[in-house]
Write a structure and sequence with these properties.
Blueprint: E1 2-7, E2 10-15, H1 26-39, E3 46-51, H2 62-67, H3 71-91, E4 96-100, E5 103-105, H4 108-114, E6 117-121, E7 125-127, H5 141-149, H6 151-160, E8 164-165, H7 166-172, E9 177-179, H8 184-196, H9 200-212, H10 218-232, H11 236-247
Parallel strand pairs: 2-3, 3-4, 4-6, 5-7, 6-9
Antiparallel strand pairs: 1-2, 7-8
Helix pairs in contact: 1-3, 4-5, 5-6, 9-10
Length: about 250
């Protein structure tokens, strides 16, 4: 359901249900949570999300909804559990890269919105898709999407069923970079290696400051920034890089 492997400081979390477009059911959400826990380890400096097969993630596994004896309770448990694991992922003080291809729909958008850098294959399509089966956004999509693209654009996606191309998603702020379809794996691997070789504390804390600013006032954020940079300057990593910069 979910593969996890670590090499060179890069943790790769791969959704591995290609026969169902990597749709998420309860066991998959649980396995994803285990992978997030493992990615919190000190040996991991960067996290790379991917989906096996031609499509990144088609959202929730609709067949599992129908098979549940109590669909309402099942969906409540799935949405609650999956969102909590995605939020834990976004709160980890290390960069998260998503490599997406084919289709990103429904709760699949939550992976994109909780990643820090998103590289999309040029042929990728993005769609909310919930209303097409009479359902509503979950897994933090209704919270994160308007913060990424703006309220009116988020409403357009939710209400009209509009599908975005990869280039449109980049222009709207959902995607960081668009590559040729056959270059996504190589490009995200390069980014992961580059970030893994970078200053881990500085990158992780920069991410934390930006993401936590959603829920904090400016004065609180400014105080947090000041505390964080003061602590960062004392680290061996920063001291080494500062001396290198001054030396020219």
């Amino acid at each position: 359901m979910v593969r996890f492997e670590v090499e060179g400081g890069v943790a790769r979390i791969t959704l591995n249900r290609p026969s169902v477009s990597n749709a998420v059911d309860l066991p998959t959400a649980q396995a994803f949570g285990e992978a997030v826990t493992a990615a919190a380890g000190d040996d991991v400096r960067v996290i790379l999300l991917a989906g096996a097969g031609p499509r990144f993630c088609g959202g929730g596994d609709v067949r599992s909804f129908l098979a549940a004896s109590d669909p309402a309770n099942y969906l409540h448990e799935l949405a609650t559990l999956f969102e909590s694991h995605l939020r834990r992922l976004s709160e980890l003080p290390k960069p998260v890269i998503a490599a997406v291809q084919g289709a990103v729909a429904g709760a699949g958008l939550a992976f994109v919105l909780n990643a820090d850098v998103v590289v999309a294959a040029r042929s990728t399509k993005f769609r909310m898709a919930y209303s097409g089966i009479g359902l509503t956004p979950d897994c933090g999509v209704s919270y994160l999407l308007p913060r990424a693209v703006g309220t009116q654009r988020a409403l357009e996606l939710a209400l009209t069923g509009r599908t975005l191309t990869a280039e449109e998603a980049r222009a709207w702020g959902l995607v960081t970079e668009v590559t040729d379809d056959d270059a996504v794996t190589r490009r995200t691997g390069e980014l992961a290696e580059s970030l893994a070789a970078g200053p881990a504390l500085a990158l992780g804390q920069a991410k934390r400051l930006i993401r936590s600013s959603f829920g904090e006032g400016r004065a609180h954020n400014a105080a947090d920034e000041a505390r964080t940079i003061a602590a960062a300057v004392t680290t061996d990593e920063a001291q080494k890089l500062i001396r290198r910069f001054v030396a020219g």
